[in-house]
Amino acid sequence: MTNRLLFRGLFSKGLARTLMGQALAFAIALALGAIIILLIDESPVAVFLTLMRGAFGDTEKIAGTLLQTTPILICGIAACIALRGGMFNVGIEGQLFLGGFAAAWVGFAFSLPPVLHVLAAMTLAVVAGALWVAIPAFFRVRFGTDEVVSTILANYIATLLTSYLTIFLFKRPGGWSETPPILPSAYLPELFSFSRLNIGLLIGLALAVGVAAFFRWTSAGYAVTMVGSAPKFAEYGGVNVRRVGFGVLLVSGAVGGLAGGVETLGVHHRFMEGFAPGFGFDGLIAALLANGSPIGTIFTALFFGALRAGSLLLEVDTTASREIITVIQALIILAVSADLMMRRRGDRTGERRWKF
Amino acid sequence: MSAVHGSQLYFNRRHERAPRIQPEVRRRLSTYVSSLSCVNHRLSSPASVCFMDFAVDLTGITKRFGAFTANDSINLTVRRGEIHAIIGENGAGKTTLMNILFGLLQPDAGSIAIGGKTMLIDSPAVAIAEGLGMVHQHFKLVPSLTVADNIFLGMEIRKNGLIDRAAQVERTRFLSEKFGLRVDPQERVAGLSVGIEQRIEILKVLARNARTIILDEPTAVLTPQESHDLFQTLRGFVDDGMTVIFISHHLEEVMAVSDTVTVLRDGRVVATKAKSALTKRELVRLMVGRDISFDRRPRTRNDGAVALNVTDLWARDDRWLPALKSVSLTVSSGEIVGIAGVAGNGQTELAEVLAGLRPASNGSVQLHGHDILDRTPAEIRNRGLAHVPGDRMVRGVDRDATLSANMLMGRQKKKPFARHGVIDWAAVHEAMRALIQRYDIRARGPKDPARSLSGGNIQKVVLAREFTAGGDVLLIDQPTRGVDIGAQEAIHDEIMRQRADGRAILLISTQLDELKALADRILVMFDGRIMGSVDGAEMDEDAIGLMMAGINPADMTEAT
């Protein structure tokens, strides 16, 4: 009893407690991951070292990690925007796919001068993402439909819709189910000669800083934050809660679409089935891990990007399959979300009151 | 000083074995004893002490949190079969003391005796085994389980290794009937009212065979009717030979229900007295340390123009039932119009409709001649209405945000706090710092989170924000609910200053004392209607009481 009180006393200070909680969650997840690696007769130390080497071993590997980080970061920012306004956009994956397809379409179907071509493709990607989330967003603010469910379901429609468009309407001649390649005028400029890493990363970083500044220093950002953290208070203070909720989802979807555009124009230069699997979900989780902070999301996205990049070497150098990183990722999510839930419930009235 | 001395004297003698007395005799004895003043009794006849039967005896309890001393060598003796109120302002150390008694905290010094036995209570399990039971301020129930399941959670009645639900329901029903705490054992807790949730909490304690029940601020969440029922139940416990320790900062209910009162201030016992030997005024002085007046505030008459005009207003509540039925009223500049009534008779809905937070079904509301009905809260604010909400924790503040962020609400786009949509936080902090000074808000600075403040200080933040919002019509719902008496006085001062400045004030309160002190006119609401109007200066409490119960006093006079 005394120990628990002592423990609570030590960690009751906001930030310290958040960080400690997350660090503890990470440690537990890694320990559990180590046990699973042991179960498949592989050394946890070797696996972790290989992962590190695969992610940060040399400049090319670091560039590879950053390449994986880019879409996760942009999707993470999309999630942060929604979370700040009290909305859960789980449909970023779908917005990413539609944005990716829209950008590809502009890229191969039109011929435009270089910079303009990129801008046009990006714009359509953004619009596609925003329009796609507008449907669940409308039902959310008009009828109170749970946006978690509707945006999750919208993902399936979006991925299958882009598959349909790719296979039946815009398939390039030949074997693969993918669109024709986009014109070089629509390529995003690459940063280094040795990697496909492109200015998408800079777009993501600028977005993170910009969104953080928006929430920190603008009147509109303040209103959105208040709607997210205390909706009744915001309503009382004269903020139009419904309009903010709708707007926040729309912008979140737009950024999700942007992530798809960046992935198409910067990396694949075409749209193909399953072109960016799981980036939308990884982004959402990165944002949750960072507690909705755009700056924090830069680091969590980097972590997930490193896991993804590192796993490529994992299959070459060890007997562990790359799916092991999915397991570790899942464990981290479990541990961290458990910590988040505990804090949410614990802080309401100062006393813990269970809700089901 | 002498009281402390007396208790120490007693403490030495207590180790002599008290003769065993038959329960019936004991009960009569304790009734007799409780009619005497505790302090006098201890000093004048210490010899008879050995016959007395003490439920709880705390000696020299001291508890420090860092540099802060929450309890400073507290002596507390609770006789068996009495209702012992522990009263004090927020932060006086009441809850800390009870948590020590219940084994949730360990004292730095002092000893605890239960039923005459000195013991170490290092966990609630020990306390429960000794017959103590605690009903916390915030209930700890599982909404998805039934009433009976909740009561027996952790001590399930088992048969062949399985939970014997039938027996649990049976036992719950038995306890419920025995103590007059009506509940349906098989109902799910989710959706039950707070009053019933509290009954379940009490039944939980009874099911664990508690003989001494500690209630922490039990009436904070109850309606007056529910509080009344609770007091009857507590009386029943005492008649049954049980002991009740009752923590409160509400004078009225302490005067209504307790036998003995212990007053805490700044972690020390200032007095332990029989209720009969105390007056309300005296109690306030003991609690706050100075005289506080609840008399009517002196005032000069202001003949202002009508600022707020409500005509034939109808609205529905959350369950879509009519909550306002043809409400009409006017408030003039420089006037305080009070709305009295038992909570839940439409007052909250009235405030919400006026502030634009709830749609009206019919009627008109004019602010300075402009129709504001069904406008957005932002438009109504811009027209000059400031609103202090009744539920300040939900509506009035974001508890996680800083004081500055709370102060900014409603003016985040306005100069000097923002320019071209960019917030000037330095200006916001500066303005908040000034408000902290001016309204005597106990906070370290504008960047403190609202949650770190006490209820009274949070209320001051809300008042400060709304009074400086530029509105000349103030809608104030429950200005001092849950606020310390000392802070209450300051808030009343501020409201009177606003009146003197020519603001039109609509003041909703469930506390008649408050309306009596402040209002120029008092309107009484019952079942969504305005029952009648009473002049604040010559307030007829009987008439108001009748109207609060839905009876028109005029009808009464005609009948007689």
How would you characterize this protein structure?
- The complex is a heterodimer of chains A (356) and B (560).
- Chain A is mainly alpha-helical.
- Helices cover 76% and strands 0% of the residues of chain A.
- Chain A has a domain at 65-301: ABC transporter involved in vitamin B12 uptake, BtuC (Orthogonal Bundle), CATH 1.10.3470.10.
- Chain A has helices at 2-11, 14-39, 44-56, 59-84, 92-109, 114-143, 147-169, 200-217, 219-229, 231-236, 241-268, 279-289, 294-317, 323-347.
- Chain A is globular and about 60 Å long.
- The two termini of chain A are 26 Å apart.
- The relative contact order of chain A is 0.20.
- Chain B has 560 residues and is an alpha/beta fold.
- Helices cover 36% and strands 25% of the residues of chain B.
- Chain B contains 21 helices and 24 strands.
- Chain B has a six-stranded mixed β-sheet, sandwiched between helices.
- In chain B, strand 7 (158-159) and strand 8 form a beta hairpin.
- Mean pLDDT of chain B is 84; it is low at 1-21 and 27-51.
- The interface between A and B is large, with 31 and 41 residues.
Strand content of chain A: under 5%
* Main CATH class of the domain at 65-301 in chain A: Mainly Alpha
Q: What's the arrangement of strands in the largest beta sheet of chain B?
A: 6-9-10-3-11-12
| Overall pLDDT score of chain A | 86
Structural class of chain B: alpha/beta
Which H/E pattern describes the elements of chain A? HHHHHHHHHHHHHH
Secondary-structure arrangement, i.e. CATH architecture of the domain at 65-301 in chain A: Orthogonal Bundle
The helix fraction of chain B, in percent, is 25-40%
Give me the secondary-structure category of chain A.
Answer: mainly alpha
Low-pLDDT windows of residues of chain B: 1-21, 27-51
Shape of chain B: globular
The biggest sheet of chain B amounts to: 6 strands, mixed
Count the helices of chain B. How many?
Answer: 21
Biggest interface between protein chains, with counts per chain? A-B, 31 and 41 residues
The appropriate CATH architecture of the domain at 2-134 and 213-288 in chain B is 3-Layer(aba) Sandwich
Low-pLDDT runs of chain A: 1-14, 345-356
User: N-to-C terminal Cα separation of chain A, in Å?
Assistant: 26 Å
